[in-house]
Amino acid sequence: MDFTKFHCPVCNSNFTENDDVVVCPDCGTPHHRECYKKIGKCFNENMHGSDSISAEGYKNPESEVKPEIFDPVEENNFEKNQEKPSNVREKGLPDFIRIDPASNHLIEGKHANLFEAAVGKNQNYYIPRFTVMSSLNKGISLNIIAFFIPFAWSLYRKMYKISAVIFAGYLLFFGLSFYNVYSNTEVVDAVNKCYEELQENPELYTDFQFLYEEDIDYLTDAQKNLIVVSESMTYPVYLIVLSYAVRLVPKFGLCIFGNKIYLKKLRKNIDKAEKKGLEADKLKVYLYKKYGTFPMVLAAIAGIFELMMLR
Fold it and tell me: Which residues are paired to 30 by β-bridges?
């Protein structure tokens, strides 16, 4: 039956040809499957048994083919079956990507299977969140990993522009910090004296533990001078502000809006891939290989350095 002339009473959206539509077995009212599941009953349940519901034109003529009747028992069995891994696999895709047309709902107007292929690893985390964000038009979805290692996370998800901006901020901060230190003549003189002493007696500078000692009475004059000068150093306001900015802005920004940014990026990538005119199976393989994830080992190394440098 052609449902495009009707609208879903739950979300009040007109049906399209690609919508997954189920109808109430009692009155024939069509719903989106997800909308029916959301409220757990027919939207017009309170009017069952009355003649007013037929005014909407939902009753199907006997001459037409009966549409799918929504059966809550069958729906529950369907969801249980979805928890089992699908045995259907497409050549070129890893096992963790489900290829199951029955679960292929829409995200941002695109089939969910395309997003699964484009996400690659951890698609069980992202696809449910993308579905909610897309259906409810939400922009906020917390991502804890992006909070702790924003550079490594954006790099791993191949959002290279964002990771490049974060990395540039780190370089700027550390560059200005070194400049502030080595433009101080007192610090430079103190370091030079320690270096001269180091050449004569290397044992005095084993692991440079003297920098962390509270009792400095046993230290040499050069070591004491370096500690005193280091503690008396002041940092300009702009450097302090920059320090907080490069550490906190990426953390909170990507923690709150990272998933939304990632979703929009994947949608653009899928649009680009579809223009190539590939067949469905080849399109998924292309999305996985082209837009999947950055090598885990390299991203992990980047994350470790990020945690160590900005702790």
Answer: 23
Q: Are 259 and 162 in contact (CB under 8 A)?
A: no
Which residues make Cβ contacts (< 8 Å) with residue 266, sequence separation at least 6? 115, 118, 119, 291
Contact 294, 157 (CB under 8 A): yes
Q: What CA–CA distances, in Å, run from 184 to 170, 177, 188, 196, 234? A: 22, 11, 6, 19, 10
Question: E-assigned strands of 46-169?
Answer: 106-107, 110-111
Q: pLDDT tens digit string along 44-89?
A: 887 776 655 543 445 443 334 444 444 444 444 434 444 444 333 4
Task: State the total domains in the chain.
Answer: 2
175 in a structural domain: no
Q: Count of residues for the chain?
A: 311
Measured distance CA(44)–CA(130) in Å, rounded: 29
Same domain, 9 and 78: yes
pTM confidence score: 0.60
The residues near 298 (Cβ < 8 Å, ≥ 6 apart) are 155
Calculate mean pLDDT across residues 212-226.
81
Judge if 80 and 116 occupy the same domain: no
Question: Do strands 30-32 and 21-23 pair parallel, antiparallel, or not at all (unpaired)?
Answer: antiparallel
Residue 69: which domain range?
Answer: 1-84
**Residue 14 located in a structural domain:** yes
* CA-closest candidate to residue 291, choices 270, 277, 307: 270
Quick: pLDDT tens for 154-173.
999 999 999 999 999 999 98
5 with 118, same domain?
A: no
**CA angle 99–102–108, rounded 5-degree value:** 80
Using the predicted structure, report yes or no on whether residue 29 has a pLDDT greater than 70: yes
